[in-house]
């Protein structure tokens, strides 16, 4: 499994990268996963967008109801330790090496799900899932990764909020959809060609990444993009199993995918020296902030990605606007970083402070998506913050959002 990384614009969204995992073996015996779709025309289920732009679906794992993130960028399916314990699943004695966006990560065990069902008609039998501790902000029970996307033909309709699954090769693309060649690597990673600032390369198709475009460090350095794309803001953009990820956030003069061009798309110029984002395996990553503008049909067997622009297609791409990065530490939101000269800095917000409320709304672990939306509101929006310092003193501050790049 190569990774899993969700990017925030103004709020650090601290979901992990699921690192590169070697194959399974040993203690639970060999498995032979099998996909079954009992409805001839496929099955369509609701897709929930709980933390924009990430989408999830209800599943049944060994008959128990759970909710899984839809992640075309993860190389395997994942269960949280809590979900694995609830299901009473034995874990492998083997621990599999992993690495994140920035660096290597601790080895993880795996388990086997006898039945993983989506809706009433789509089933995966004897499916391997890696058991990985995920942050408190991760409100789902697991992740549907590459083995899932290889097992079915799938259509993610962001506008309707629906996921359609059909047997491989049996999901016809809608009339008028644009076909893009899809390169599928042996491990299941899906790549499409795109062009960033005039430079064409291969990019991961990654619905689990909350950003739009990430360029890996070797490509950034080789093409001189850190100097060319100014102004930029250096900031943390995520938390992976290998640690916090950092990037220079800038805007591309133009980004091209298939027949479409967008001006001034925010781009994360990775600073990683290890892990996937520090590799030269391909050029970069395309996340959910891009894909949510389409209905996306994935045909792994046919080597094609079909895209239909939807209402969100014309929405502007928001960049960082607050300069405030916070994460849930198990008890409260803690300010992780403040960009110098940003609205948060000018309002006196400091790293280490607790962010208790925004606009009078008290914050809890389930408010990751809500907080991110507040911090990405329109420029000129004034946000009232309630903060608590390390000495326990509470105070009010107001920041006024503006574009930082």
What distinguishing features does this structure have?
single chain; 405 residues; mainly beta; Cathepsin D, subunit A, domain 1; six-stranded mixed barrel; 7 helices; 10% helix; disordered N terminus
Structure summarized in a few sentences:
By secondary structure, the protein is mainly beta.
What does this structure look like?
The protein has helices at 81-86, 146-151, 217-223, 225-228, 288-291, 343-346, 368-375; strands spanning 34-37, 43-46, 48-51, 54-61, 64-70, 77-79, 96-99, 104-108, 110-118, 122-131, 142-144, 153-157, 162-166, 178-181, 183-184, 190-196, 199-205, 213-215, 233-240, 243-257, 260-270, 284-286, 294-299, 304-309, 324-328, 333-338, 354-358, 361-362, 382-388, 394-400. With 405 residues, it is mostly beta strands. It folds into 3 domains: 31-166, Acid Proteases (Cathepsin D, subunit A, domain 1, Beta Barrel); 178-314, Acid Proteases (Cathepsin D, subunit A, domain 1, Beta Barrel); 324-400, PDZ domain (Pdz3 Domain), CATH 2.30.42.10. It has a 6-stranded mixed barrel. The protein has a 6-stranded antiparallel sheet with strand order 2-13-12-23-24-14. The chain has a 6-stranded mixed beta barrel with strand order 16-17-22-18-21-20. The longest helix is centred in the last third of the chain and has 8 residues, at 368-375. The chain starts with 33 loop residues before the first strand and ends in a 5-residue tail after the last strand. The relative contact order is 0.17.
């Amino acid at each position: 499994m190569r990774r899993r990384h969700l990017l925030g614009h103004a709020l650090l969204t601290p979901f992990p990268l699921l690192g590169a995992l070697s194959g399974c073996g040993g203690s639970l015996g060999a498995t032979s996963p099998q996909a079954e779709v009992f409805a001839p025309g496929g099955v369509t289920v609701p897709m929930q967008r709980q933390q924009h732009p990430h989408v999830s679906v209800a599943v049944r794992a060994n008959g128990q109801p759970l909710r899984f993130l839809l992640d075309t960028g993860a190389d395997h399916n994942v269960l949280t330790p809590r979900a694995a314990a609830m299901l009473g699943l034995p874990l492998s004695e083997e621990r599999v090496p992993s690495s994140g966006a920035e660096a290597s990560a601790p080895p993880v065990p795996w388990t086997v799900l006898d039945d993983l069902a989506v809706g009433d008609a789509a089933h995966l039998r004897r499916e391997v899932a890696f058991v990985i501790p995920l942050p408190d902000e991760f409100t789902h029970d697991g992740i549907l990764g590459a083995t899932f996307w290889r097992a079915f033909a799938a259509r993610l309709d962001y506008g309707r909020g629906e996921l359609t699954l059909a047997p491989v090769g049996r999901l016809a693309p809608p009339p008028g959809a644009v076909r893009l060649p899809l390169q599928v690597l042996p491990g299941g990673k899906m790549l499409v060609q795109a062009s960033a600032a005039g430079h064409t390369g291969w990019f991961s198709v990654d619905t689990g990444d909350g950003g739009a475009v990430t360029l890996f460090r070797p490509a950034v350095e080789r093409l001189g993009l850190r100097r060319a794309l100014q102004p930029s803001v250096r900031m943390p953009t995520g938390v992976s199993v290998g640690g916090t990820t950092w990037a220079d956030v800038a805007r591309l003069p133009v980004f091209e995918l298939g027949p479409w061009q967008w001006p001034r798309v925010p781009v994360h110029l990775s600073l990683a020296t290890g892990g996937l984002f520090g590799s030269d395996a391909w050029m970069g990553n395309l996340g959910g902030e891009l894909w949510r503008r389409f209905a996306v049909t994935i045909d792994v067997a046919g080597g094609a990605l079909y895209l239909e622009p939807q209402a969100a297609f014309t929405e502007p791409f928001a960049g960082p606007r607050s300069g405030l990065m916070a994460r849930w530490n198990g008890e409260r939101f803690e300010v992780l970083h403040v960009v110098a000269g940003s609205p948060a800095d000018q309002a006196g917000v400091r790293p280490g402070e607790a962010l208790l409320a925004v606009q009078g709304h008290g914050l809890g672990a389930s408010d990751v998506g809500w907080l991110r939306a507040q911090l990405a509101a329109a420029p000129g929006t004034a946000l009232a913050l309630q903060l608590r310092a390390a000495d326990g003193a509470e105070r009010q501050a107001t920041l006024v959002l503006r574009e930082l790049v």
